[in-house]
Amino acid sequence: LATLHGSDATPAQRHSEHAYLWRKMITVATILFAFGAISFVKSFVRAFDCINVAGLDDEPQRFLVSAPEIECTSDDTESDYPLIKEYSTLGLLAFGATYTLLWLSLGKSHMADYAGVHYLSFIADKFQDAYYYWQMVIVTRKVTLTACFVLFPQVIAVLLSACVVIISLGMQIAAEPYEDSGTNWTETLSLAVQLFMLVA
């Protein structure tokens, strides 16, 4: 890098090095987003997960499940809940914007003539060309399952999650998006095991 930024480096060499570093940064950021999506959403959604508790005057009060000492009310000026809710909302909006941007960038990368060497090609290289976007489908499934268990009571969460897994299993069997047949078979078995665990 120091050599390329020296006086002997040509503009083409500098451009090539900058493009390489940019690709690496995008790759790392995308991997962190894809693998951290569940943790991000779980953290942001917790602010909306409140439970009703009977108060002293028999009037129900709502408290955060993740922090029972915080009441879910916006009326109390001394409460931390309005700030927590505001930050969580901003976090969800930022996550949604990043998610949408990644979808659009992946589509643009696929449609470009140089898609095979584009910044996001590593996301789609294990899938068939028609299913280049499938990694985002997997992220959507995982985020949806996480939100179900955070936002809903256990029985409803299990029912909703089972529906999500059944739909995902049907899509996986119909599409077989991976290039390798063994990976398709493994993914199908993984979804089947998830369904059995939910039923159990």
Task: Describe the secondary structure blueprint for this structure.
Blueprint: H1 11-45, E1 50-54, E2 60-64, H2 81-111, H3 121-124, H4 134-151, H5 154-175, H6 181-199
Antiparallel strand pairs: 1-2
Please give a structural write-up.
- The protein has 200 residues and is mainly alpha-helical.
- 64% of the residues lie in helices and 5% in strands.
- The protein has 6 helices and 2 strands, in the order H-E-E-H-H-H-H-H.
- The protein has helices at 11-45, 81-111, 121-124, 134-151, 154-175, 181-199; strands spanning 50-54, 60-64.
- The chain has a two-stranded antiparallel sheet with strand order 1-2.
- Helix 1 (11-45) crosses helix 2, helix 1 packs parallel to helix 4 (134-151) and helix 5 packs antiparallel against helix 6.
- The mean pLDDT is 82.
